[in-house]
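Summary for the funding panel

The consortium committed to producing paired sequence-structure records for every protein in the target list. Below we show the first two records in order, beginning with the earlier of the two.
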Amino acid sequence: MNIIAYLEPHIENIYEKAVHWRRYLHENPELSFQEAKTSAWIQKKLEDMGCQVQRCTQSNGLIVSIVGALSGPTIALRADMDGLPIQDEKTVAYASKVPNVMHACGHDGHTATLLAVAQFYMQHTDKLKGERRLLFQPAEEVAPGGAAPMIAEGALLGVDVVYGVHLWTPLSYGKVSTRGGNFMSAVDDFYIDIEGLGGHGGMPHDTVDTIVVGSQFVQSLQTIVSRNVNPMNPAVVTVGSFQAGHASNIIAERCGIKGTIRTFDESTRALIHEKLENILTTTCEMYGATYSYNLKKGYPSVINDETEANRVLSVARDVMGTDNVIVAEPIMIAEDFSYYLKEVPGCFMFVGAGNEDCQATYAHHHAKFDIDERAMNNAIRMLVHVAEQYAQ
């Protein structure tokens, strides 16, 4: 009998444990690269199940190998575990106990989901074909991220395919969404300090006004996408912070600008990097200012394998119902699951976690973010069903 037949009779019990685990994690979040207690707690849960756990030496990551009694492929499933530097503003019993840190993106639910999957597989290794490699990854929220170090330590060694789930509140509970090809964008952030010559607001001719220089630069940035990038290649250049001056009658000597670049195509990514610095250089030269420029390259774009994305969509139609499956549009947010997909075929999917009835309507990274916890039930089903469909 197929292992899937053993999932449904036990799913409610598995789900109840996932809720308990998720709420513990929600109360006790840790920031990226600081997840030592979280990792130790996860490891203890896994070892209590009988799992053999490899602790990564370069990070707080954990690699779990569950080997079945039957021959078959090696399938990796991944969850992230880090929180965000945000004060939890929810009035729920499981609100974060850590000041200014919370799980505002669902990573607690991802970890609880994968723990539930681990428990299910450990209970049915006699029916399992091949190996299930479970990756509990730290530091998804902050580049350079936790995926690449785990890969360097053998997370994907011998892996045939990889899948991941993101519980997603913009998508209603009960729905699943993904797409083949470009799914989530690459991300790069830039940090610029412009230095001019400050002075009296009534004597501008004796100054180099960095507010003028910075404003000209920001305006000129808009031409990169509109006049340099092929309109068939989506791209975004956003300035998120502009800081200069502190008084009405003083011309600002310094200006700080921060922004982000989102692309799917690597040639477009390189073009924007080049054009941005060219505009910065020429603008500052034109006004007689100087600058420092730091480009922080982030994650590459998430590119789902077409075959595996079609597999996920097909399984989702069977598991969730055809009306609850959506072929996604590309989205300009980033995820370091992209590094796994650069190594082996796979698919990253959204599982709907939004629901007005339980206040799960706030955007990811919002201080009142929460999920419809029943979404973990669907995430468990999707990961197991997709893995076992591949293993047939």
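The next record, for a separate protein in the list, is shown here:
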Amino acid sequence: MAQGPRSISLQHFHRFAGHARTLALVFATLGANEAAHATVAVLQPAREAAASQPLELTLLYTDDDAKPLTVDVPRQLTVSLTNGDLPPAPLTLERDSAVPDRLRLAPGQYRRVRFSAPWPDSARGTVTIDPVGFDASPMLVTINRSETQTQVAAAERRETQATTPEQLASASAAANTAAVPTSTGDTMLSGRFSTFEPVYFADGKNGDNLAKFQFSFKYRLHLPDDPRSRGLLDNLYFGYTQTAIWNLSAESVPFRDISFQPQLFYYVQDTGWKSPLFTRMGMEAGFGHESNGRSGDDSRSINIAFVRPTWDFGDLNGNHLTLSPKFYYYLSKSGNEDIADYRGYVDFLVKYGSPDGWQLATTLRKGTKHWYGSIDSQLTYPLAKLIGSAWGGYLFVSYFNGYGEDILDYNQRHHWIARIGYSIAR
């Protein structure tokens, strides 16, 4: 009699353990049977998706053991969708109705299981897809609300024809090679907010100890239905940059000058113009204001109209050259009517380097009189390559020589100064 309750309890325990394994299968690793060495992989969706088609995620179940394996497959998956306008929102994907609750896999065999759900109306621009309850990296997908989906369709056909897990992985990667224009490489909030000019803090001394810092962002006013759109309103941005020179050697540690620079402009990273002479051409044009917010004799301000073509030469994923002259016209000047004598009408930016390595960026200015002008160079290198992959940002080293590092002293020649610091975006 004493063994009866123990037997019932043990039976309940096994039943509970079975449920626990099922939950672990769904929410922890989506199908990992530890004894049989089953593996489950999430195939990366295409970088661009049609809003008229459902969101689809494909799980790849593979039997890595030397014996047959039975795997329980969940009926639903939950993901979290995030874009730049809305907080994370859950979305439930339903399993393909033709797939049974259990899969029987032979040694070395694999099976694909697709889960799908309609895109919500709020899904616009670049959306982050974060699977809930299991270990998988977030995925970025750009929503296309136009009718053109030829590249995605071709990638899907390649995936359908794949016959091995390796080919499936290759097809999934190919689906992500479609050229989807992005505002910048430093996207912050899925298509609307992004960095603009370099963001950094650096310190140096040549006479006075003059630290310098800058933050800069741009905001896309309207997200287009077609991410490849080059229309005016679809690529209209508000930008803001603030630069400060900070005198750390003075008694009260004052700011020597602060420059405030709001802008409204049209910008496309790739105009689509093709030539054997360059890899890519971008365009930026608009209106800008710059002032130091002071009054009286120290007041400085300008308003400009500008256009800035940008040409990239070479492999964009490796070391390549960028030429980006900014041509501008002074609409008005206050407190610095002769600023063109020292700054001129062109900021000529030259960059060389790679996205995941070092980069040297130099801006040259030539005034309209004498040899007035300036040189401003910035050398950056990823901290992840110096002190570990957990670190973000860049080691920052800069050099300035000439006139007009700040708008207050635009007509005063500064001694050269070198600085070292940290950059968030370059």
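Regarding this second record: Helices lie at 3-28, 150-161, 165-174, 339-343, 384-387. The first strand starts at residue 38 and ends at 43.
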